[in-house]
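Reference record
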Amino acid sequence: MRQDRPNILLITSDQQHYDTLGVTNPRIGTPALDRLAAEGTRFDRAYCPNPTCTPTRASIITGMYPSQHGAWSLGTKLFEDVPTVGDRFQACGYATALIGKAHFQPLKSEPGMESLECQPLMRDLDFWRSFHGPWYGFEHVEVARNHTSESHAGQHYAIWMEDSGLANWLDYFDPWPPRAPEAKGADYWTGQTRRWTLPEKYHYSCWTAERSIAHVERSCAEGRPFFTWASFQDPHPPYLVPEPWASMYDPDDMVPGRLRPEEHERNPRHFRLTQQQAPDFSDYQEDYGIHGFMSHLRDPGELKKDIAAYYGMISLMDRQIGRILDALDRLGVADNTLVVFTTDHGHFLGQHGLIAKGAFHYEDMIRIPFLARWPGRVPAGHVCDAIQSLIDLAPTFLAAGGEQPSGLMTGVNQLDCWTGGPDARDHAIVENRHTLTTVHLRTYVDERYKITVYRTGDDGELFDLRDDPEEVSNLWHDPAAAALKARLMEKFLQATLAAEPTRMPRIWGA
């Protein structure tokens, strides 16, 4: 099939630590992702614009920071009138599709802020049989919201399970409404036994791969270039995965991150509270609570089991990513397809004494795996330390398709950088506004330094990533770092000014 424009295939995971690729970590097997790294470029300094799902996922399709597109936190909505990259691609003839996790909307629906991603609607399968878009610039969608056995399973994934012969799929998922936490018999993270009795062939990673391949096949048959987002739901906890993946990794071989003695003494108070058995975060709470503001203490043996399951979830996903890559080869479109793999944000596996996620902007949380492959254009087998941000995906994809980004997009075009040219940016900005005031922070990170500023209080973080790569020594209150702090604050302010959107150019003096 001959096309005038390249295909774009975006593959994402959910909440994946940057060091969970086989090419960087010998303890995990990811042959499909290793193949992408060998046939393309691995970018070692990629960052998310927000370390939670909704804000970052909205940034991926809008090319804007969360503070600009409006979906500033979990539990908020990306309104449907915000322009997206899919809108632009549809206008120039692309077949656009989102397969897998969306999470552009909250788990609650209110007048004026209606959500399709809430219960009981998610289990109204008659609705989902008749709805496949258009939605957020995707002319075709097949979506699912749950992670492992969570109660908000449903949507197109549930229909697929039924159509594939699993009539009793509800038996493998928590009931709706969900049971009280104390009645579940295990905390959220462990997923009870970490072994999901759901047969592997009905796993949502298999569904995401199968339906992504179907969209690519359909686009090729129609002679249309495609923009396909294969959005996998793992390895976001609960740590739960079918066999044989649940037993693939020996917990005794896992190496959790660690907390250095007294490292949180120089950090803001909420860091220290995480190391208490029953911390009091009442001073921070607003509205619906804050992800990560709980005790992060975890039994070391249990944490190793968590990591083994987390790795198994990634390896299962990797197997399905391999199916998609094989389909590109089979259809003869691999050479004309730009493939990008990344995730929405990182994950803690014991680093700094932390688990999962929260308002802690260590590299483990905001730095992400990032691979790009485009045969003949993106250098093969290359590792690049040029700074990347997920807000750059939309303008870069448009550039690859021969289109100019809109003035609303504040991400930068990375295409020259991806194809071996000069760096496109010298910094990344990470926002995190989890509540209206008490947890509202932003981070500026450049080639060497990282500074985090809070809306309230006198605390912050300042790390020298070259001399202190493990981020143990916070220099924020160090008198010897005062000049450095002032210089970084100025650069941070200038970067914020430079990121303002320009919806239209100035066309006259008045």
